Amino acid sequence: EPEVTQTPSHQVTQMGQEVILRCVPISNHLYFYWYRQILGQKVEFLVSFYNNEISEKSEIFDDQFSVERPDGSNFTLKIRSTKLEDSAMYFCASHRDPKETQYFGPGTRLLVL
Amino acid sequence: GQQLNQSPQSMFIQEGEDVSMNCTSSSIFNTWLWYKQDPGEGPVLLIALYKAGELTSNGRLTAQFGITRKDSFLNISASIPSDVGIYFCAGHPDFGNEKLTFGTGTRLTIIP
Fold first, then answer.
1. How many Cα atoms sit within 13 Å of B7 on the Cβ side?
2. Any chain A CB within 8 A of the CB of B13?
3. Does the beta-carbon distance from B45 to A43 stay under 8 Å?
4. Above 70 in pLDDT, residue B96?
5. Are A103 and A96 contacting, i.e. CB atoms less than 8 angstroms apart?
6. DSSP labels for B1-48?
7. What tens digit of pLDDT does each residue of B10-31 get?
8. Which residues of A touch B36 (CB under 8 A)?
9. Does B45 touch chain A if contact means CB atoms closer than 8 Å?
């Protein structure tokens, strides 16, 4: 069964460094999302992406964040200058149609020191 | 923004017991979804509900979309050890708005 994959599974970085989190959505999906989950808290929406542009973004998704679909398969989330409070699990999700459910990847655990 | 409140926050039950948890919102949701999250993993969809009043089962799981569109419940019958995890409700508040709003989660622990 096709699945969303994410790399790396874990990333440790120093405050102020740039990180890029990678996702490979399911191949025929068209709508892509990033969510994050701070330890012990609920999953929060960051950004949605369709037709090579951002559809919607949350207040969390400030100028330090960007997303890109550099080729036909990858979907990336870049944090330009990480802060301690960016430490969280980051989940990528995708679906083919807004009426369908979203499929989540296993997540990248980001730790900012 | 819309918020989904889940109760209880945590549950400790014996294997074989039935479980009931619910999710409420102050505003209308047009879709209700129930996900399970195991430690270190992403959320996995259990049940999706699309119509007010809808009652749907998936094996030992049953969920209902409240008639007011402001609540949903999830029941698990005859719990087993692999039911351990965090259960999240989620929903789409608006038609055409694809983002998911997640609830606060219910942590289920099963005592042997």
1. 3
2. no
3. no
4. no
5. no
6. ---EEEE-SEEEEETT--EEEEEEESS--SEEEEEEE-TTS--EEEEE
7. 999 999 999 999 999 988 888 8
8. none
9. yes
